[in-house]
Design a protein that fits this description.
By secondary structure, this protein is α/β, with parallel strands linked by helices. It is built from 16 helices and ten strands. It is globular and about 65 Å long.
Length: 343
């Protein structure tokens, strides 16, 4: 049995538009997860083919083949790879703490490249569970990706900054009780759809942050609105090139079997169907309810992405990998040579 990895983000929906139907007579299993889980699965052999972080395809180039013509890329703002910051100027994050998402690899390395090459700063990076309120309550910046980033970037809600959070913890440890729960109630009512999709430990953290609001409800200017930097846009400003966040990769030892089983053909055909204008709108409309966002936001998002790994996308990818990985050479990447596909 072959295992296909799928990511349940809106931006991956065109790839598996009707993939399951096309492979219904093939012995395959679909494994779902976030990008970091796809990276690990490909690396360990638990998954045979999946969309993975572009930088992971380079790190493990000897073990995978990249499928040509398939990617998730953007020319400018991507809207799902966002740095939320308490500083209006990225340069002010020099020496400051930035929480990094635990969901991705490429986005993390992109931020590091931008800090080093564009802004010439050296923040202190810490990997954290992806949950924006918790991240920004303890750090000066937070890198968030995927659907969570699309939601938080669209809502752009006010949150608790570190200095306020520290004060609350201090009050709680001193036995100070909240005077009323007005602000905590309001925060609960305005809670983003992200919260409903969190794991139990993050839900607990949400509850703790609600307590923060309750404790400080009698103070002024308790909440602040963070600044947002879109890393796709920051990359374009620095290089003038698109940025490729993810590629489809297959394990080298499974590539021929995947092709013989028709998996490659089915993936390309499904993607072609999923990228039709009416298909993108259909996907966006269905997914918008899940995210709690207007359909127009989701439609525009899917229309703005680049999925075909063009020459310009490859040029941007090559530059990024050369900046991010010491000693990397482009020739290390192996692209699968497709025969005539039944599309």
């Amino acid at each position: 049995m072959l295992t296909i990895g799928l990511i349940d983000y809106l931006n991956t929906m065109p790839f598996h538009y009707d993939l399951a139907e096309r492979l219904q007579d093939v012995d395959v299993h679909f494994e779902r997860g976030v990008p970091s889980q796809m990276n690990k699965g490909i690396r360990t052999g638990e998954i045979d083919i999946a969309p993975i972080s572009a930088i992971e395809a380079a790190r493990y180039a000897d073990e995978v083949v990249v499928l040509p013509g398939l990617s998730i890329a953007s020319l400018g703002a991507v809207r799902t790879v966002l740095l939320f910051s308490w500083a209006a100027d990225m340069r002010d994050l020099d020496g400051q703490s930035i929480a990094l998402t635990d969901h991705s690899a490429t986005s993390v390395e992109l931020l590091k490249v931008l800090c080093r090459e564009r802004y010439h700063i050296e923040p202190q990076f810490t990997v954290a569970k992806q949950h924006l309120p918790s991240m920004l309550a303890a750090h000066q910046g937070a890198l968030v990706i995927g659907d969570d980033a699309l939601i938080e970037g669209t809502l752009h809600r006010a949150l608790i900054p570190p200095d306020v959070a520290e004060e609350v913890f201090s009050q709680q440890s001193s036995g100070v009780s909240p005077k009323n729960s007005e602000l905590g109630t309001r925060n609960s009512e305005q809670q983003s759809p992200v919260a409903s999709r969190q794991s139990p430990d993050l839900t607990t953290r949400n509850s703790e942050l609600g307590t923060f609001h309750s404790v400080l409800s009698t103070q002024h200017s308790v909440l602040s609105t963070p600044y947002i930097f879109d890393l796709g846009d920051e990359w374009l400003k620095m290089t003038g090139l698109p940025f490729t966040f993810a590629v489809w990769a297959a394990r080298r030892d499974k590539a021929h079997e995947l092709e013989a089983a028709g998996v490659f053909d089915a993936l390309y055909a499904s993607t072609e169907m999923g990228l039709r204008e009416d298909s993108r709108d259909k996907l966006a409309d269905a997914y918008s309810a899940r995210l709690g966002l207007p359909t127009g936001v989701c439609r525009r998002y899917l229309r703005d992405l680049r999925y075909h790994l063009t020459d310009d996308d490859l040029a941007g990818l090559r530059l990024f990998l050369e900046l991010a990985l010491d000693g990397f050479t482009w020739e290390r990447l192996h692209f699968w040579q497709r025969e005539a596909l039944a599309i």
